[in-house]
Amino acid sequence: MNTPEYTSYAPPPPRWESLKKEIKEAAQTLGIDDIGFTTAEPFLFLKNLLQEHRDKGYDSGFEEPDLDKRTIPALREGEAKSIIAIAVAYPSKMDNPPKSEPGERRGILARSAWGRDYHLVLREALERLEAFIRQRVPDAVMESMVDTGVLVDRAVAERAGIGFSGKNCAVISPKWGSWIYLGEMITNIPFPPDTPVTEGCGTCTKCIDACPTGALVGPGELNAQACISYLTQTKGFLDETYMAKIGNRLYGCDTCQIVCPHNRGKNWNHHEELLPDPEQAKPLLLPILDLSNREFKEKFGSSAAAWRGKKPIQRNAVIALGNFKDASAVPKLSEVLLRDPRPELRGAAAWALGAIGGEAALAAVELALESEQDEEVAGRLGRAKSRLAGPIDP
Length: 394
Fold this sequence. Notes:
Blueprint: H1 15-26, E1 34-39, H2 44-55, H3 67-71, E2 82-89, E3 108-109, H4 118-136, E4 142-145, H5 153-159, E5 164-165, E6 171-172, E7 180-187, H6 206-210, E8 216-218, E9 221-222, H7 228-231, H8 240-246, E10 249-251, H9 255-258, H10 278-281, H11 285-288, H12 293-300, H13 310-324, H14 330-339, H15 343-356, H16 359-371, H17 375-389
Parallel strand pairs: 3-10
Antiparallel strand pairs: 1-2, 2-7, 4-7, 5-6, 8-9
Helix pairs in contact: 8-13, 13-15, 14-15, 14-16, 15-16, 15-17, 16-17
């Protein structure tokens, strides 16, 4: 009779640990670059921080207003037991980017808006993940969200071990840097949690120092109202002080990520659908001003930059032309100033003409002053005229 060799026996892992391992091994085939697991316990520490942030007036207005929903994971049906966080890496560099030259000035979209709309990319990845789990647990309850969900994506990703929260308010992965899109899935499956990343920013403040508008008011604290990424997505008039700092950005801002040492040398081009179309990611500015709604959707509709419609992009294109101070743009800007029915574009054109300078710009501003009915635009025209009549900025 053979004696069992108990010393070499190892019990099989618990069901959910085994499934978690299976999911991690399959992640790349599902289009997911990194995946982490955490409990569905409330993010208690976060509620007070979010309230303080709101009290200071730092919210963007895009957030879920109910702080309990933002900090207490929940399912519509069943009890939330765990959260799966996912990350998908995206490019930080463009091959052969088109040049911006006099007479053919170009704007730039933030890297998060290069390639196909990341909301769709992540939702499809989460759908594949859901199907993978449902094959193994048919009665599982799962709810996925990308960006527009109620939870704070960064807090979930940090607790699930995807990365740490940087001073620039981005989740920074030790492997991928901060060039990652985030999404999550709440489920009633009690997966064992992963360990959070303990790495951090140390004494580095490069992102805070480089922020064009000072929106990073402290380590991990962002005043969204001053953030260029937020400002480029708003509708309406922009503060003229911020307009000068927007540069040629049409959507978003990458400055705090570009200067981050954790991103040095990191560029991810393995997701073909996220690779940029150079003419979309760095488009000519003047043609943007003539786009119809249909043409705008054809050019930018596949990008995350399209979600607010064409008006903010066109306003930002006017601002960018002013920041380039290219006199060849004066005729088109004068046309916008005198004929465009949208006050925010006329106001931007007034500022841009004031920034460019010259007799033609002054003539357009003076002509517009004779008939402008909007009080805000008229005020901007008056400031532009004063600027144009005085010494021209170098």
